[in-house]
Design brief:
disordered N terminus
Length: 138
């Protein structure tokens, strides 16, 4: 069994991929159109009608694209999706995010689970556990 990622590893200042893919992409500016990569690391990443498993960057723009894990300072999602997004400032329109940890949110993303919901669930669990513990001691 081959445990290596499929596709080439690409490292350059400027990376442009059109209708193709790569295993690992690293560059100052990364642009992908109708393609994808398993891992992308760069200062600026733009993906149009494509996707990536893991993106780590300062600035990301996803247009009709998807990412499993998006870690970015200032991402913009337009008709896109991310399973997990960790960011300081998110701009999103008509986009879906599974788990979001963000400082600031602009636009109207559809978020399944965010930091506020996690805090509410955690507090509810703690109160319920405390109440059950007190009731079961008697």
């Amino acid at each position: 069994m081959n445990d290596q990622p499929s596709g080439p590893d690409i490292q350059a200042e400027v990376v442009n991929i059109s209708q193709g893919g790569a295993a690992h992409v690293e560059g100052t500016s990364v642009t992908i159109e109708q393609g994808g990569a398993q891992r992308i690391h760069g200062e600026s990443v733009e993906i149009t009608q494509g996707g990536a498993a893991i993106i780590t960057t300062d600035s990301a723009t996803l247009n009709e694209s998807g990412a499993a894990i998006l870690i970015a300072e200032e991402p913009t999602l337009n008709n896109s999706a991310a399973a997990i997004a960790i960011t300081n400032s998110l701009k999103a329109e008509n986009s879906r995010i599974g788990v979001l940890v963000a400082g600031k949110i602009e636009g109207g993303p559809d978020i399944a689970f965010d930091g506020r919901l996690a805090a509410i669930i955690g507090a509810s669990f703690a109160i319920t556990a405390y109440a059950l513990r007190r009731l079961l001691r008697r």
